[in-house]
Amino acid sequence: MSSSAIALITGASRGIGAATARLFAQQGYALGLNYQQDHGAAEALATELRAGGCRCILLQADIGNEAQVLAMFQRLDTELGPLSVLVNNAGILQPQSSISGISAARFAAILQTNVIGTFLCCQQAVQRMRTDLGGQGGAIVNVSSAAAKSGSPHEYIDYAASKGAVDTLTRGLALEVAAQGIRVNAVRPGFIYTDMHAAGGEPGRVDRLKSRIPLGRGGEAIEVAEAIAWLASGAASFTTGSFIDVCGGV
C-alpha cells in the first residue's frame, strides 16, 4: 500500500478495530483512529503506531451523531488528506436477553449506532471518494457479524437484526457506487476473542460456545483484520458487494 493511502477506522481503540489499525500501519497507511469514549486506549494505540512510523490522528466521535460524523470527516480532510479506505467497525452490544427483555429504546440505540452510524460514515466517505465529484475512488469495508445469519436467538436478536441491515446496506451501496470507483464489502466475524462479549454480560462466551465451531476454537481479532485488509487492498480490485465469513465454519 502506498504511503499516501489514508484509512479511517471507526471503533479503533480495541478489539478488531485496534488489530486492523496495527495491520494497516504495517502496510503503510496513514490512519484516522475513531473512538467514542476510551481516550486512554485510543491514545495508547496512537502512541504505539507513531513509534513505528505511522502517521495517525485521533478522532473522537459518536458515529450515531450526524454532526459529530461530519466534523470527524472534516478533520480527517484537513489533517490527513483524501480518504482511500473506510472501515466501519464501530458497533455496540447490550446484555444478553430474550425478546421480552429488549425495550424499544434499547433496540433504537442499537440501530442508531450499528446501522445509522454505518450509513452516515458511508455517506461521507462516498462523497469524498466518488470519481464524478473529483475523488479517486476507494474501498469501504463494513464489519457485520455472523449473527446477521444466525439471528442470535435468546441473546442478541436486536444486534443480529442491526447487522442484517448492515449486510443489506453493503450490497445495495456496492451496486450504487461501483461505477464511481468505490468498492463496498463486508466481513462477518463469528466467535472472536474481544472485549465486546463483556458488554453482553459474558466475558467467557467464546470459550462456552467454541464446541460449536467446526475449526474447534475461537477466532482472534487479527484474523478478522487480515480479511478486512485484503478487501481494502488492490488484491481485491474485482471484489465488491461481497462478504467474507470469518467464523471458523459456523
Automatic annotation (TrEMBL):
Cited CDD domains: SDR_c
SUPFAM superfamilies, per the entry: NAD(P)-binding Rossmann-fold domains
Protein name: SDR family oxidoreductase
Classification via InterPro entries: NAD(P)-bd_dom_sf (IPR036291), Sc_DH/Rdtase_CS (IPR020904), SDR_fam (IPR002347)
Keywords assigned: Oxidoreductase
Family (UniProt): Belongs to the short-chain dehydrogenases/reductases (SDR) family.
Organism classification: Bacteria, Pseudomonadati, Pseudomonadota, Gammaproteobacteria, Chromatiales
Keyword check for Oxidoreductase: yes
Organism of this sequence: Rheinheimera tilapiae
Entry-linked Pfam families: adh_short_C2 (PF13561)
PROSITE patterns reported in the protein's UniProt record: ADH_SHORT (PS00061)
